[in-house]
Design brief:
The complex is a heterodimer of chains A (442) and B (161). Chain A has 442 residues and is of the alpha/beta class. Chain A has three domains: 213 residues, Rossmann fold; 86 residues, Ubiquitin-like (UB roll), CATH 3.10.20; 97 residues, de novo design (two linked rop proteins), CATH 1.20.1440.230. In chain A, a hairpin with an 8-residue loop joins strand 7 and strand 8. In chain A, helix 2 crosses helix 10 and helix 14 packs parallel to helix 16. Chain A is globular. In chain B, strands 2-1-3-4 form a four-stranded mixed β-sheet, covered by helices on one side. The model of chain B has no long low-confidence stretch (mean pLDDT 96). Chain B contains seven helices and four strands, in the order H-H-H-H-E-H-H-E-E-E-H. Chain B has 161 residues and is of the alpha+beta class. Chain B starts with 6 loop residues before the first helix and ends with a helix. Chain B has two domains: 66 residues, Orthogonal Bundle (Arc Repressor Mutant, subunit A); 76 residues, Glutaredoxin (3-Layer(aba) Sandwich), CATH 3.40.30.10. The chains are: A alpha/beta (442), B alpha+beta (161). At the A-B interface, strand 3, strand 5, strand 9 and helix 13 of A face helix 2, helix 4, helix 5 and helix 6 of B. The structure holds flavin mononucleotide. Flavin mononucleotide binds next to strand 4 and helix 16 of chain A.
């Protein structure tokens, strides 16, 4: 497939996660370059690059930055979302582990553009090793005079960068819950508007961006916004990281072109190499477990952000989970539903009550105790949280409601006969053995 | 308060606290809540009620606010955990690659049930740990282990003495 490496360009090179190694490869030259431009010119470059947020929503990064009010006298903040908790997603941790300085250089560029003098990197609490690498990199950058009173020696522009570690709560990946957590509270999302760009951390204008988004900035300034835009497809610039998991021969985290299809990702020799043991694709969850499921007929779709719209699904966080034809759809969905039930923060009634209710109904059906009316109830509960299609009609403060309701509706709609079979036969047609054809823990 | 920390722990707490407070605006002490609770847990192994009072005082908030945070986040222990906290991811990507069997195997080997806190082991199911392409995975006292198979797991278990 021969994809130009952007975010992974330094991965695996020895010493690359140290300042010395990063500088030897030309690191921090782009921050220097950006500091010679006006902040407005930096924002314009980012807009031109068609960089879109890699946290899940694919929101145009330059546009988000331009929402920060210029005339607001309050301090401005940058918050980096390193909470990476959407099931199926494992990419940001590898940036932290392999190339932390490209994130830090990107932070310098972004803070200059935004006029922010403080950046908090919110890393999920379970990231002991990635956080240790990042802490070391931050300390190196201070020692070298990159951060601190003068950003890269720039007179009059101070930048402080701190890592804050979470403590185990999926909800804190949602940008306003993240801000609450940064303020030392439980992670309860805020009503929007106002959006964080206007009223964010400590009531001040704040931009929240994903790790991969910001780590893409140095290459954009090295090779140019046009290069980055052209590398992408349609209105999605650059390449992207995807995590391939489940029923493939070669699971892993890969940098792919925006025009790579899910099908290629699963079958290409450089990526998944197909399914083991002659199994066939039954379904694919394309963008983290909250993305509506696709059937085997729907996987010829590009991993670019807008390509999923006609399918009423989303590219999301790039977590591609492959289910093979020996895997039960009901059980898979039950597992997904348990997650959202567990992680609902408890603030909004439809989500707090509805997610566990859906998980209970799915368990009942999977265990052969389901009744015909349960399917109707299940769909009714899901719709009351967030009717689908289309995506985006949720009745809750944040999209965690949608994240749990979309999988349910898409699975039931696309694999209805399997749910009905469970109910009619009073058992799971796939049996009740522990899962995992690939494990050997018998 | 005097019996919460040893002299050495006290010194480490005070030093850590003043460093952490310097990361936030002076009128936003409460913002240091998560890092300070993490600091307490690193010193004591958990977050006892007296510590919540101390943290409240230092961050100029109430013990109720501290407790609210300490109980919201699953990584904070408000009960003393066993010597080895073993968090096994059983989310979809890990389950498709044997996590359920791995959990059952651990229950047998360790003679415990997932979700029960014992003196030696606290085995828990946990949610996705960002190891989906390197599944199955687990963490022992926050150390991450991935691409696990039986041989690797057996070797790991031998180190838990
Ligand atoms: C329930 C929920 C969980 C989320 N988790 C994450 C996450 O772990 N990491 C992330 O970058 N974005 C996550 N997001 C998206 C963020 O709210 C936000 O859109 C993103 O951090 C913005 O960065 P970007 O524009 O660079 O993508 C989540 C959103 C929701 C609704």
């Amino acid at each position: 497939m021969n994809v130009e490496k952007v975010v992974t360009r330094n991965w695996g090179k020895p010493g690359q996660n140290t300042l010395q190694g990063y500088k030897q490869g030309g690191g921090y030259a782009q921050l220097k370059k950006a500091l010679e431009l006006t902040p407005d010119a930096v924002v314009a470059e980012v807009k031109k690059s068609n960089l879109r947020g890699r946290g899940g929503a694919g929101f145009p990064t330059g546009l988000k930055w331009s929402f920060v009010p210029k005339d607001n006298p309050k301090p401005k903040y940058l918050a980096i979302n390193a909470d990476e908790s959407e099931p199926g997603t494992a990419k940001d941790r590898f940036i932290l582990e392999n190339d932390p300085h490209s994130l830090l250089e990107g932070i310098g560029i972004a803070c200059w553009a935004l006029g922010a003098h403080t950046c908090y990197i919110y890393a999920r609490g379970e990231f002991k090793y990635p956080s240790a690498v990042l802490d070391k990199a931050i300390a190196e950058a201070y020692r070298d005079g990159i951060f601190g009173k003068k950003l890269m020696g720039k007179d009059g522009f101070a930048l402080d960068v701190y890592q804050v570690r979470g403590a185990g709560a999926y909800i804190c990946g949602e940008e306003t819950a993240l801000l609450e957590s940064l303020e030392g509270k439980k992670g309860w999302p805020r009503l929007k508007p106002p959006f964080p760009a206007v009223v964010g951390l400590f009531g001040c204008p704040t931009v929240v961006n994903n790790v991969e988004t910001i780590a893409s900035l140095p290459p954009i300034f090295e090779k140019g916004a046009e290069w980055f835009a052209k590398l992408g497809a349609e209105k999605s610039g650059g390449t992207r990281l995807v995590t391939l998991s489940g029923a493939v021969k070669r699971p892993g985290t890969y940098e792919v072109a925006m025009h790579t299809s899910i099908k290629d990702l699963i079958f290409d020799a450089e990526y998944g190499q197909g399914l083991p043991n002659g199994r066939k694709v039954k379904a694919v969850i394309p963008g983290g477990s909250s993305a509506p499921v696709l059937t085997a007929d729907e996987i010829d779709v590009k991993l670019e952000f807008d390509a999923f719209k006609p399918l009423q699904s989303m590219a999301g966080s790039g977590g591609v989970i492959v289910l093979d034809d020996s895997t039960c759809a009901v059980r898979s969905l039950w597992r997904v539903a348990r997650f959202y039930a567990e992680e609902s923060c408890g603030q909004c009634t439809p989500c707090r009550e509805g997610q566990p209710w859906m998980a209970r109904l799915l368990r009942k059906i999977e265990e052969g105790r389901g009744e015909t009316k349960d399917l109707e109830t299940l769909m009714g509960v899901a719709k009351s949280i967030a009717p689908w299609p289309p995506i985006g009609l949720g009745n809750t403060i944040c999209a965690l409601g949608d994240a749990g309701a979309l999988p349910v509706q898409s699975f039931v709609q696309k694999f209805k006969s399997e749910f009905e079979q469970h109910i009619a036969q009073h058992r799971c047609p796939y049996g009740d053995k522990p899962w995992g054809h690939y494990g050997d823990f018998a | 308060m005097s019996d919460l920390f040893t002299a050495d722990e006290r010194a480490r707490f005070d030093a850590g606290l003043s460093e952490l407070l310097s990361h936030y605006p002076a009128d936003r002490k409460r913002a240091a809540m998560l890092p300070v609770l993490r600091l307490v847990q690193s010193l004591k192994g958990w977050i006892p009620p007296e510590a919540m009072k101390l943290v409240a005082e230092k961050l100029e908030t109430t013990p109720e606010r501290v407790q609210e945070v300490a109980t919201f986040y699953v990584m904070f222990h408000t009960q003393k955990p066993g010597k080895y906290v073993i968090d096994v991811c059983t989310n979809l990507s890990c389950s498709l690659r044997g996590a359920e069997g791995m959990l059952a195997y651990l229950e047998r080997r360790l003679g415990t049930k997932a979700g029960t806190n014992g003196d030696k082991y606290f085995l828990r199911e946990t949610e996705c740990l960002a190891s989906c392409g390197t599944a199955p995975c687990l963490q022992v006292n926050e150390d991450h282990h991935e691409n696990l198979d039986k041989a690797k797991l057996d070797k790991l278990l031998e180190t838990l003495t």
